[in-house]
Amino acid sequence: MNTMKAVGVTHYLPIDQADSLLDVEIPRPSASGHDLLVQVQAISVNPVDTKIRAPKDQVEENPRILGWDVAGIVVEVGNQVTHFQVGDEVFYAGSVARAGGNSEYHLVDERIVGHKPKSLDFAAAAALPLTALTAWEAIHERLGISEDTVSNSGKTILIINAAGGVGSIATQIAHLAGLTVIGTASRPETSDWAKAHGADHVINHHDTFVPQLKKIGFSDVHYILCLNHTDQHWQHMADAIAPQGKICSIVETEQPIDLEALKNKSATFVWEFMFTRSMYETDDMSEQGIILNRIATHIDEGKLRTTETKRLRPINATQLREAHRLLEAGDMIGKLVLEDFES
After folding, report:
1. Are strands 201-203 and 180-184 parallel, antiparallel or unpaired?
2. Cβ(314)–Cβ(341) below 8 Å
3. Residue 1: pLDDT over 80
4. Eight-state DSSP code of residue 200
5. 28, 65, 248, 284 — which has fewest CB within 10 A?
6. What is the pLDDT of residue 343?
7. Which domains does the chain have, with CATH numbers?
8. Are 131 and 307 in contact (CB under 8 A)?
9. By C-alpha distance, which of 14, 74, 47, 52 is closest to 130?
């Protein structure tokens, strides 16, 4: 049986324990149906990785493979594949319902895969898929914001946690759409990063929103994208959203939220979960491949840029533990990527 290297979880432990992530050998899969077999060149980490790996009383009989940001090369295609061929360079986030991409080879449905931006190397490309898909779906689909810059003239969006992984690309996408982008940050370096990536203004998410908005000339905002602590920011968002405005969040709540706070404004609240399409294999699942190709085109045309800020090598358990540790510390700017399995 052909095997491959991977980094897996058997026991759910704190990241400072050596057994929290393990170097393992697992069977190398083969492609069939709509699947591509991708030789993994680079990966990135996201909060979903650390949340799944978080300590719990559960033991895996077979190692569980995490990782939902991949850039690599197609080495095998299933018999129903129509958009890719062997040798294609690709990038994608994959499906949380399947094994992740922290392995030398990875199976992924072609419908949620894009062609890698030609202007980026694999590591820089691996920083993008999950966050770019999340930001694009949140802005253009959940909030219903057009890509037409003329129609967005004079409209405002508040992006909470603008320097984080999703925020770093969301500020760019919102700016590209012609919105006035107000980001939140709490440190000089995160404020500078947000402004460098498309935020026209920055306020502090530790302080009340409305007085800060009024200081920069806005009584309210048309849209809010919440990328941090939905319940903690809830009342501030309800106060800041314009009548008939829309709020989208990607972060689950720890406490119940009061939807009635939006009633008088007839405001909308909507969730964005990037894995919905792949989990439920929705009829429009292929939209994710289309979005990734749009992102790649924008990257190659210089309209968007990678959000990679730190690169580790090689891909192994030691380096992934360090990546998880850095992510759990909560002060990451942009995205952390890993490249190259040891030969």
Report:
1. parallel
2. yes
3. no
4. S
5. 284
6. 67
7. 3-128+285-339 (3.90.180.10), 132-271 (3.40.50.720)
8. yes
9. 47
